[in-house]
Amino acid sequence: MSTLWVYPGQGVQKPNMLHDLPQNDVTQRYLDRASQALGQDVLTLDMPEALQSTRAVQLCLLIAGVVSSQHLLQKQFKPDYVAGLSIGAWAAAVVADVLSFEDAVRLVALRGELMQTAYPKGYGMTAIAWIFGYRDPIAMTTIGAGAMTYIVGPITGSAIGASSDVIALSIAIGLIKSVFFMVGTPLLAKFMYLKSPRSAMIFGGLAGTTSGTAAGLAGTDMRLVPYGALVATFYTGLGCLLAPSVFFLTVNAIFG
Hints:
Layout: E1 4-7, H1 25-38, H2 54-74, E2 81-84, H3 88-95, H4 101-118, H5 126-131, H6 137-148, H7 152-160, H8 164-188, H9 197-207, H10 210-218, H11 225-255
Parallel strand pairs: 1-2
Helix pairs in contact: 1-2, 1-4, 2-3, 2-4, 6-7, 6-8, 6-11, 7-8, 7-11, 8-10, 9-10, 10-11
């Protein structure tokens, strides 16, 4: 039997989530590594007031996901596959040994800071729906799913009963994201340190879009674009499964 480890996105965070991790050498070692990479004590990130910041939320989810996985690995449990929703993809990348823990911590901190600057209130993909004036869980889930890819958006909306205008908006947001990545990534590849197919695939997977993977490979090795795009479609399939279920239930619990 194959084993899949899945890492959640924003919405499952809770106060003291880092403090509640098993108190042992494994936990302490990773907390120390994260603190050193950030230049701050990461145990300050899971306080209730700190979790009002998406930067703190994303870092807590990354660290908790990696630490929990390390405990399972030490007990000889090993996944055949790993996957993650949104910020969860970063923990999955670390556990799969395609991204170092320290690099993930620094990049997630930057990701959170940029998201916080762009929209100070609200978390993750649902913030896009909030910007457009949507407050109900169905619309927020559908539009947030569209921010994953323009395929996941309409499938999610149809599954949970979104209106046609919300579904159309989710498609438009997904298409804009795809065009942005497809045009911008090859032009900026050298400034983003996309110097190899490996780094391009990591970028595409963390961007959460087939277009991101294809664009990253276009900036490194054009011959690999079709293969990278085919592999990245797994993300779309996972999104179609998780967005109408786990993602919707999370959004509904918070905003419903």
